[in-house]
């Protein structure tokens, strides 16, 4: 059994993917070829944003959005403590200070009360200027935008959605990567919409931001002349081959994969809900199930279950083994565990199970039976 079976998906989409790759090679348009524009248009329309600007990876997508807003030294950027490093690292590389926010143990997403607590703390200290909130759509479920967006409004902060895991999810039909002022996503192979290498995208409704994103991803070039550089940018583009791979994969995701993976999650929850803590999806929210994460009683039980599952050939992952406030890279911030009780709980108790749109009911049954015994 595989944790995320990308081979099973490839077998279904092989003809289209292979033809797409061959066409790109035949065209020799390896950088910013036609499939890139086609993909940008389709993704923007799907999520419900005016513009999609593809780039090299999800980390760059976050960084490009922050650069467009000129975020830098002295600025505070609020993000979840329980996430992949890039959610915070993308502001650190620009010299800004990430402010880590504890999570809600039910959804594993940013706790809006903890967010407001941190905003007030930064304002009281008076050293940094609060600028941006980066809510993370962890495991595929959109963050609690119903409560986060009013907080952003109240304090005059911008919102950058980290939709790296969230692509395909929605809140009452409004799709992930359309929340807040800008959104970022990743096409890392194991994400809900993954390519065969690195890739990412930024979404915005604002024409000026779209133009600046396109400039900054190409060394700050002017709109018409590649060798007329107006500001400091980076080099971050989506390869045409990756766009050609993503086009059929995106179609499959929209056509049936989201339904299939939701069906798989439903079966898991039905079988496991009386035995372990299963994921909570808020009413009106839909997940794209980048991960299916259960909570066990404590670290000992979690580790024992993981070892037992492994002995039976069932792969699981611990997303994530520690909070960002516990990372060596952020030791200098000297943040105490007491401020992050739910991150600590989650990191000790979480276990992510195999899930993807092509998983069989037999495999799910086997995973559940093995957990229960
Ligand atoms: C994967 C991920 C990223 C970064 O994406 P890359 O394409 O790997 O750079 C950022 N945020 C979250 C929450 C992620 O899961």
Précis, in short:
This protein has two domains: 6-101 and 109-247, 3-Layer(aba) Sandwich (Aspartate Aminotransferase, domain 2), CATH 3.40.640.10; 256-372, Aspartate Aminotransferase, domain 1. It contains eleven helices and twelve strands.
3D shape = globular
Largest β-sheet summary:
7 strands, mixed
* Overall tally of structural domains: 2
Would you identify the CATH H-level superfamily of the largest domain?
Answer: Type I PLP-dependent aspartate aminotransferase-like (Major domain)
H/E element string?
HHEHEHEHEHEEEEEHHEEHHEH
Q: With helices defined by DSSP (H or I, 4 residues minimum), what is the helix count? A: 11
The structural class is alpha/beta
Supply the CATH architecture of the largest domain: 3-Layer(aba) Sandwich
Give the number of DSSP strands: 12
Radius of gyration, rounded? 21 Å
Question: Widest sheet: strand order?
Answer: 1-9-8-5-4-2-3
Mind telling me the CATH class of the largest domain? Answer: Alpha Beta
Return residue spans where pLDDT drops below 50 for at least 5 consecutive residues.
Answer: none
User: Which range best describes the helical content: under 10%, 10-25%, 25-40%, 40-55%, 55-70% or over 70%?
Assistant: 40-55%
Topology:
Elements: H1 6-27, H2 34-47, E1 51-55, H3 58-68, E2 75-80, H4 86-92, E3 97-101, H5 112-125, E4 129-134, H6 145-155, E5 158-162, E6 170-171, E7 174-175, E8 182-186, E9 200-204, H7 207-216, H8 240-272, E10 285-286, E11 292-295, H9 299-311, H10 341-349, E12 350-353, H11 361-372
Parallel strand pairs: 2-3, 2-4, 4-5, 5-8
Antiparallel strand pairs: 1-9, 6-7, 6-10, 8-9, 11-12
Helix pairs in contact: 1-8, 2-8, 3-4, 3-7, 5-6, 8-11
